[in-house]
Amino acid sequence: MTKKEVLDKIKKAKLGHKRWMSYAKAIHMGLPVDKDAAPMIETDCSFGQWYYGDGQIFSGLDTFQAIEQPHSMLHNKYMQIYKLKRKPLKTGLFTSKSSAQRKKNEELDQHMKQLIHIADILMEALADFEKDVKEMSDFEISQLS
Predict the structure, then answer these.
(1) Which end of the chain has less neighbouring CB within 10 Å, N or C?
(2) What's 12's domain CATH number?
């Protein structure tokens, strides 16, 4: 694996997770989202496959390790938003449809705020890892594998 290949993976990860954010925002707003944008676990996205596969040669770097938690949290939060948006409203004797919808919207808003915060943390972690990789030579990277 070359330095350029690693930097390309990081770039694609940043773009991929920005795209996921746009999907989450679309879901939140009630817009239709393609089935390919459906949430998946962190090991199934293209970056996750690299991170938990070939990328593990960087597991000795603190900046690499710092990616795992926010990456996992981002996927989990996205899944919560996805499921909540599709969950039927709970109405009852003392709960009107409008109050149930308002409560659901408030919960979705809270999840979106958390998702945005997690995404910011992930982007910082990716930037820190990218900086470390840029400081490494191809030779140093080849010695990791």
Answers:
(1) C
(2) 1.20.120
